Amino acid sequence: MDETFIYSKYVTGKNFIGRHNEARALANLLAQGENATVYEPPKSGKMSLLRQAFFNMQSAGLNFRVCMVSLLDIRSLRDLVLRLGSEILRSFCSSPDQLAEAAGELLDGCAIGFSPERYATDGSILGADREIGEADIVRVLRLPYRAAARTGGRIFVAFTEFQNVMLTEDGDLFCKLLQEVFCNRSVDDRNLAAYIFSGSAVNAMHDIFGMRKLFFRQVERIQLGEIETREIIDHINRSLLTSGKVIDRDLLLGTCKLFRNNIWYINHFAAICDSLSKGYIMENTLTTALESLISVHEPRFIATMNDLTTFQVSMLKAILCGHTKFTSTEVIDEFTLSSSANVRRLKDALAKKEIVNFETGGAPEVMDPLFEYWVRTRYFGMKI
């Protein structure tokens, strides 16, 4: 049975709402051999965008393979390099013999090679018989181009949670070597492979690609725009009508405003409303659904607030009160922020904890819309 409101997995095709321009832009970049980065808050649609871009390219007849490399649990450079090489080989090899042959050919003379023992034990493909050096890392970073030339078609390597590269012992070295690989690409290389860098820690990713410009002019950012309210309302109404249910447009407008058009939250919220109703959806149903949704996420929100110092909590409250001139005497005194130097430290702390984004070009923004609602109404007791 098809899900009416999908929020537990990425979506493509008819279930992909809005952002078709961004999907086309990403597909065009990759088709031209350009590297791309997409960094947005968790559950904002990054993976759906990637998959829709791949869907578009596949529909256009482009021959390619996708290699997904998760950095979610990566904490060492060795593990990162071995995983990258392993996933690239896995994208076009299906048996131990094929893996051994491809690794022997493409990584010949390298410290890294196919490991039958690891493969038999836990399914890992590559191992290293000595310390991995810079030349070995470069061999693996160039592996997509060589593998694509060997197999035909293209290879797109998509890193997820790429900001975790900086949790390794030398993330700067990895980025520096990858930058050199990009700078030394030939025209043929651009027709063979491209890298995509995805991350949900917005401020950490912005530090890599925006502030420090570690891949300057080698990686293009695709920024997700807000999905239009009209598209979201049409999507909800169309989906509810399949089960014979109706909701007032004003209630949907309020829902979009509350969740700042975050389609993941809205789909989850609408699914709860759908399960609680039989016909016309009333306001009390939305209130009950909101309570249910908050109950799911509240432990995470409480943990976030418990992780903040008293000064950081005060800074967050000042942000929610709409202040922007945090170093003014009035704001420092009202929220007991101590000093202008302390304000700078507090901004850095809230940014590093990925709670607030100060790089929006306007007022600072609390990234998670439901967390913002919860902290306003439940934690600080403010009125909306």
Automatic annotation (TrEMBL):
InterPro entries assigned: P-loop_NTPase
SUPFAM superfamilies: P-loop containing nucleoside triphosphate hydrolases (SSF52540)
Record Gene3D superfamilies: P-loop containing nucleotide triphosphate hydrolases (3.40.50.300)
PANTHER family for the chain: ATPASE DOMAIN-CONTAINING PROTEIN, DNA-BINDING PROTEIN-RELATED
Name the UniProt record assigns to this protein: ATP-binding protein
Species assigned in the record: Candidatus Cryptobacteroides avistercoris
